[in-house]
Design goal:
With 323 residues, the chain is an alpha/beta fold. Helix content is 47%, strand content 20%. A hairpin with a 2-residue loop joins strand 7 and strand 8. It comes from Tamilnaduibacter salinus.
């Protein structure tokens, strides 16, 4: 049965269209349906009270459905919330739909078949949004527990991510696995440029929010078994193992580089843009596995180069042959 209290927001610059959608939803039993006639108004309403499902026209003046999706995802990061986004569209090309999915859209309803698709799609969206938000709530609880475990020395207290000690443990484990079973170990270092300047400009509270937002964004872009750690205020690390050495390349992490550099992070102080430099330090069984200290030192040297050149660098540690 549909959840009558599901919070829904309908966004369409054509008042007639938004009323048609709203009435159809209310007729189906949904009671909490709000309407916005432009994207800025929708963002204002979402700031006041988030929704589980947002239905928006793709083509709108000032800010279209894709740009609105970008802004909503930024809001969601700040609020640790997930909004299921459905776009109303007349576009049916695979290229257009693929572009929208890459921007974070969850589903589409074709205007030519809206009467049949609307209510079933919203019913399914309700279930997906509930699951996503339940997972986010559970993860937030785990992170909070990590912060409160003063006896734990492997968690960053501000973000709940692993700290430098945890990163070394995971690096050592991955190198052992690489040596015994093959494959490759990756240590990706991420350095944020101008952190101290941002701290002076925005203050301690906003920087804590920024660190948490960056952590959430990176966590959403890595694989489930990869280890995400915060080494210090402006340094993050990802430890990953690849069964196939050829897959261990900068291309495997390009989405992280773009995810940090191309989208600002929303905080109470407003949207804060960060510039990240990245270096990938890799080792594989075929070339020999280094000790963890050598791997870390090589990665740090690579990151220094990346910070000065503003490039995504790739380095390999030297390996001492065993007698």
């Amino acid at each position: 049965m549909p959840n009558p209290d599901l919070p829904i927001l309908v966004v369409d610059d054509a008042r007639f269209s938004s009323m048609v959608v709203s009435r159809a939803l209310q007729k189906a039993g949904y009671r909490d349906v709000r309407i916005a006639n432009d994207a800025p108004s929708a963002l204002h309403l979402l700031e006041e009270r988030p929704v589980s499902v947002l239905i928006a026209d793709w083509l709108m003046p000032e800010m279209d459905g894709l740009d609105l999706t970008d802004r909503i995802r930024q809001q969601d990061e700040q609020k640790n919330h997930y909004t299921y986004i459905i776009l109303l569209t007349a576009k049916e090309s695979m290229e257009a739909l693929s572009q929208a999915f890459d921007r974070g859209v969850d589903d589409f309803i074709y205007k030519s078949d809206m009467n049949k698709q609307l209510v079933p799609r919203v019913f399914a969206a309700n279930r997906m949004a509930d699951r996503q938000n339940a997972l986010l709530a559970s993860n937030a609880l785990l992170l909070e527990n990590n912060r409160q475990l003063s006896s734990s020395s492997i968690a960053d207290p501000e973000t709940g991510l692993g700290n430098a000690r945890y990163a070394r443990q995971r690096l050592q484990e991955s190198l052992r696995q690489c040596e015994s079973r093959g494959g490759a170990t990756a240590m990706l270092l991420i350095g944020l440029r101008g952190w101290s300047g941002l701290a002076r400009r925005h203050g301690e509270s906003a920087m804590a929010e920024l660190a948490q937002g960056i952590g959430r964004r990176l966590n959403s872009l890595i694989r489930p078994l990869d280890a995400l750690c915060r080494l210090q205020d402006d340094r993050f690390a990802i430890i990953a193992h690849f069964p196939d050495a050829e897959r261990c390349s900068t291309g495997a992490f390009r989405r992280l580089y773009e995810g940090i550099n191309h989208k600002a992070v929303k905080t109470a102080a407003g949207f804060i843009e960060v510039e990240a430099a990245m270096t990938l330090c890799q080792a594989d069984a075929g070339r020999g596995t280094p000790d963890p200290a050598t791997m870390e030192q090589t990665a740090q040297e690579g990151l220094s180069e990346a910070l000065s050149t503003r490039r995504f660098t790739e380095v390999r540690p030297s390996v001492t042959e065993q007698a």
